[in-house]
User: Fold this.
Amino acid sequence: DNGGVWRVSWSNGRGCGGEARIRDGVRFGAGGVASVAPGGELRLELRRGGDRTEVEVRAGEDGPRRTMRVNGRAVPWDRAADEWLARAVPVLQRYTRYGRPEKTAEQAEADADAVRSEAEGLVRGAGGRAETVEVIRRAADEAVRSGADTTKSRLLPPLEEPAFPAGPGDGGPTTIMNRRATQQGVECLSTLRARNAYPTADRRGIARLERDGYASISERCGDRQWAVHITPAADGSPRYAWSGEVPDAGREAWLADILGYFGRGLPARW
Assistant:
């Protein structure tokens, strides 16, 4: 807090994070920002992978005035943007006490002790994986500094940041889906991001993509991560760029399984 201006930034070390600048006068509500007093302002940026969404909310004559940019490109404020902001504000509130009652010194110390104790429990369960331990301890330090409560959702940076309502290029919608599953006792998170991509008839592959289309599929299981980025060749056929620990012999089966799962509930164009 500096002259009525609050600043906060965070990162989970996996390409997701954000930052915000809040000037006194912003009041949060169930739909995101309920009201903004004259002089109040919210600037919020969320990042996921290579994508970036920026929102500004200021006081207007008829209520809060909102603007949005996706990857540097201005997009109309519509229902999708309203839904994005409603999901984004709770993410922001995990990292700042703006708008919440002040704690007593005793309560702040008790909460800090609880966060540290919870973090140590998570460290013991991390099996000695240095990367995971570092993420847990860094997140615990941030939680203590920001006065967060003791739940794991506030202690650890979220895996599911709000989806971006529009993508680069022509501003068409971006399909984003997540799947959580446990494999041999290890929690796995699979993610699909796609735009202007057409699946095969059995929904287990990509048949073709429009010129500005793409599909990115990734899966993280513990310390292991697989990913593939699919872009169009000159004739629209898919080109594949693999990364991570994906064995050549298992690539097609892995991709077919992921696409088959996500494809069941999607239309003919992703």
Observations:
- Residues 203 and 265 are 10 Å apart (CA to CA).
- Confidence is low (pLDDT under 50) at residues 150-173.
- The first strand starts at residue 5 and ends at 11.
